[in-house]
Amino acid sequence: MEPPDFTSPREAARPFTPKLSALSESPLYDKVWEDADLSKRDRSLITVAALVCLGRMDELPAHLHRAIGNGVTETELAAAITHLAFYLASRLQFPLRQ
Fold first, then answer.
1. Would 70 disulfide with which of 24, 25, 44, 61, CB 3.0-4.6 Å?
2. Is 56 helix (H, G, I), strand (E, B) or coil?
3. Where are the domains of the chain?
4. What is the reported pTM?
């Protein structure tokens, strides 16, 4: 068995929980991400937006890399996160503008 990859909690747990990993990833990656109704590029942009809105910064780096690999540009990611910041600021009662 390879040593665990501790850069991600999911990857660190994978060697110890292979069945759980397979059950949790199979529907997501085999069915949801492969559904032709949305492109992987669009799914990546939506996923990044959801993670930003939920404050899941621990998951964000991997999904930012995946988004770039799926065709979202760094400029588009920056614009989306900036756009979201204004909506999130009002939710968090943090004024970004006067």
1. 44
2. coil
3. 7-37, 38-98
4. 0.69
What is the spatial distance between Cα 34 and Cα 38, in angstroms, rounded to a whole number? 9
User: Backbone phi, then psi, for 63, in 5-degree steps?
Assistant: -75, -30
pLDDT in tens, 19-51: 777 767 777 777 888 889 999 999 999 999 999
Tokens of 69: 């690999």
Q: Spell out the alpha helix ranges (H) of the chain.
A: 9-13, 18-25, 40-54, 60-69, 74-91
| 54-80 pLDDT per residue, tens | 888 889 999 999 999 999 999 999 999
Structure tokens at 27: 């529907």
Give the separation between CA 22 and CA 84, rounded to whole angstroms. 33
Structure tokens at 43: 């799914």
